[in-house]
Design a protein that fits this description.
The chain is built from eleven helices and 36 strands. It is α+β, with helices and mostly antiparallel strands and 613 residues long.
Amino acid sequence: MLKDLIRTKICDYLHKPCAILRLVRFQIRTIPIWLVLALFLALTVSAQVTDNYKPGPDSKPQPSAPKGEILKFTFVSSKIFPGTTRDYWVYVPAQYDLEKPACVFVCQDGIRYEAPTVFDNLINKKEMPVTIGIFVAPGVVKATDTNAALDRFNRSFEYDGLGDNYARFLLEELLPEVETKKTSDGRAIKLSHDGKDRAIGGESSGAIAAFTTAWERPDAFTRVFSSIGTYVDLRGGMRYSSLIRKYEPKPIRIFMQDGSSDLNIYGGDWWMVNQTMERAFQFAGYEVQHAWGDGGHTGNQATAVFPDAMRWLWKDWPKPVTAGQSKNATLASILIPGEQWQLVGEGYKSTEGPAVNGKGEVFFNEMGSSKTYKIGLDNQVSEFIANSKQGSGQAFGPDGRLYVAAGGDQKVIAHATDGTAKVIARGFVGKDIVVAHNGNIYVTNPPPDNVNELSKVWLIKPNGEKTVVDTGIKYANGITLSPDQTLLYVADFRSHWVYSFVIQPDGTLGSKQRYYWLHVPDMSDWSEAGGLRADRDGRLYVATAMGVQVCDQAGRVQCIIPTPNGRLSNISFGGELFDTLFATCNDKVYKRKLKVTGANAWDKPNRPAAPRL
C-alpha cells in the first residue's frame, strides 16, 4: 500500500504524458522499496529547494513604518466589459496628503506581493513616492440562471488579449470610480493623471495586461512590473517580441521576473518567451531589469523581489521615463533623433487625401465640410476648394493640376491653380488616386459598405478613355507607384495585404500578387490600410490602424511609426525638400521631418537601389 502511494506521488512530480507515466510506473514496480523511498525523498527535497524564495524585511511590517489603510469596493457598471462584476481594493498610505494627487500603482488579480506592507516600508524610507495602490480583480459575468449555466470568467479575455480595451477600462471607468471614494476619515482620493507618476503590475496573465496597458497608453503608465508574464500564444501575446522591435520606442520602464521551471504547455514556453521579450526590449532601447530564477508558475520569487523592483521602477522619480534608442536600422535611417510629430491643424471632422505639389505644399480634404485645404510652406492652413464634392483621395499630376476622386458626384475632377475645374471621368465612386509621369491615372473604386461586391481599379488615359484594369480586391483603398513607376501598389483595407502589380506598356496591370504583409490590430480582422507612399529608396509607407508601417522592397514590415492620437487615414511626403511626412489623423493633421525624401509620381521616375534581402 505504501509503495503504491509513493509510486503515485513520484509520478505526480514527474508531470509526464500518460504513456510515459505507465512506463515509469512499470519500472518503479521492479525496484526495491528502499530505492523508491530514496527517490521520493530526493524529489521532495528538490521540490523544497526549487522556488524556495522568502520575502525579506521590506515585505514584513516594521514598527517604524506608519501603516496605510485598505478599502474594499465592488465595481459593476462597466460599459467596456458589460455585465461584469469585480471587487477592487484601494491602499491609501498614511502619508497621503489630500492637497497633492498621489502616485498610482495598479495591480491585476487583487492584492499581491505583500504590496501594502512593502509600500508602507518603502514610502516611510522615501525609496518610492507616496503611492495609492489599486488592486483589481478580473471581471465575472454572473449567470442569470445558476441551474442552467456557468458564470463567465473574463480574466483571459481582459488580460491576455492585445489592444486598448483594458487600458480604456482602467482610465475611463475604474480610476475615475476610485476618485469618487473617500478614506475612512473622509479625505477624497486624488490620483495623479501623469504617466510618470503611474505604475502597473501583475503576474502571469496579469503581467501581460499590465504591459499592454502601458504599451497602448504610455502617456498614462510608464512603469511596469511583470512577473511570470504570459507573452505566449493564448490570445496573441507572442506577437509582442516582434512588435517591440519594429515600433518606434515608447517611454516605458519594465522590471521582469520569471523562473526556469515556469510553464511549458500548449500556449508556449513561459521561461523562454520572457527571455525573448527581454532581448526585444534591449534591442529596442527600453529600460529593462530582470530577476531570473528557478521557480515555477508561482508568485514566490515575485513577492521576494517586489521591494527591489519598486525601488528600481521609481528610481529618479519625479524625473519622467524617456524612450530609448532602438537598434532597428530602418528606424535609424528614417527618423531624426529628437524630431517628433508636430500638429498642423485640428478641429476637423474627418481628414483625408493629402497630396503634394511641385513646391512642396500639401493639400488635404475635410470630408465633413467637403472642403479642400492647403498647407503652405509656412505651415499656415488655408481653404483651397470650397466644395470638393466629397473629395477623398487626390494627387497632383505632371501638368500641375490637382486630380480629386470626388465621390459625391461620382467623378474624377482636375483642379488648375487658377481655380478652373475639369471633369476627367465619371460614373464611379473613387477612393484614392495616383497620376503617373506619363499622365495615366489609376483610381481605386471599392464597393459600398452594404453591397456584396469586390473592388475595381480604374485606368484613365490622358485622352479620357477609362478601363477597369483589376477586380477582386476586397476593399481597394490607398494606391501609389514605385519610384521607377514600373509597379503599382494597392492597399486592401479589409485584409492584411498590399497588392503589387506590374504596369504593362499600355498601362494595364499584370503579375498581381498579395505582396506586402501588414500587422493587424488585435481587436480587428483588418489592417485598415489607407494611403500609400514610397520614398526614393524604394520603401513603401502604409497608413494603417497601428500607425505608419514601413516596408522594404521584399514586402516585409521593418518598422512602425505611430501617430500621436492613434488615428491615421492617409499620408504624403511634403515640404520644400519633400522630406516631411504629413499624416491625416481623423480630426487632426500632423507632420514629421524625416531623413528620407518622398518619391513623387509627377516627378521624373527614379530607380532605387537594389533591395537588400
